[in-house]
Amino acid sequence: MRFLHTADWHIGRRLHGFDLTEEQDYAFQQIETIAQSEHVDGIIIAGDLYDRSAPAEAAVQQLNRMLQQLNLTDKFPIYAISGNHDSNIRLATGTPWFPRTNFYLYTQLEQAFTPIELTDTQIFLLPYFEPFAAQQYFQDESLQHLDQSVAAVIAEMKTHFTPGKTHILVAHFFVNGSAQTDSETQLTVGGLASVPLSLLSDFDYVALGHLHGKDALQAPQARYSGSPVKFSLSEAHQKKGVYLVDTDTQTITFKPLSPLHDVQQLTASFAELTQPEFYQQYQLTDYFGITLTDTKPIPNVLTQLRTIYPRIISLNRAEGFVEQFSYQGEKRQQLQQQDPLDLLSDFYEHIAQEPLTDQQKKWAAAALKIANQEEK
User: Fold this and answer.
1) Percent helix, percent strand, percent coil in the chain, to nearest 5
2) What is the pLDDT of residues 256-294, one digit of tens each?
3) Does the chain have fewer CB atoms within 10 Å around its N or its C terminus?
4) What is the pTM of this model?
5) One domain for residues 353 and 236
6) Which region is the signal sequence (predicted)?
């Protein structure tokens, strides 16, 4: 059988305030085209369909359109799970009758132990869960950490294996040895919230979600598809796409997706950035993280640059700000005794490398007055 593996759609996500609806629709259209042209037998979505547990109405409508198009119009079976960004309860709305159209969306741990039975394949859908859910299911309080919980879950799943069939696991967690980017929720604390790759060895393929880069894990039978859209500057170097998994030929093929607007990092001086021969080599509707190499302050630098690069998502200086404020001992006491407006002025000048204007000081004084009145 042939499956398309995708994950981490994060519908409703914004990129530093910029709406990504068009980018996500554009990626979805490519995913649909790949599924149709490759005649896949099903589509796997390994969690984080939404970006937040209480998605906005527009995000709900957008995801509904996508799922209806794939399942009801295109007639593709869908095998999906909830991720750590999803609300299990909200996402589960309507799921009792979804299987009538071959749409399987699992949001509760107990569902993971009933595999979806296909002709020669068993698909186990394991939604994101916390160890407490495993404690309740197994009635075992010793399951304190995710690795222990997943070990118990996998052991139970294996008791439902049908010999001779291909076994696929769809899951959403962090596997030891994987690499993260700053747009992904940090789930590892002292290594206790990660899962050893060895636990997954009895599955023929493990379709993972949570990490946004396809190269986050290098394993022959386990892959992160990555997100279809870039969600942070740290993902600028990543190639987005989906995996095609053919269980008959035992091949895994990456199919790239093209961005509507790419995410790029530029490092240059203000003079270079504003020269036509420099900026005309880029698609100026892309999202840019800009690092200035200038050492002197530039008035209204962000406003000026946005006349050329309208989608700037970050702006900083190459040399950084080495000095750090110290809040210990005598210095801390001095700061506590300092006038708030003077403290703000010092902080602003330290960071912006230019003093507050008279108008900015007036705004700050007015805001401080309101804050003081609210405290009384």
Assistant:
1) 35, 20, 45
2) 999 999 999 999 999 999 999 999 999 999 999 999 999
3) C
4) 0.82
5) no
6) none
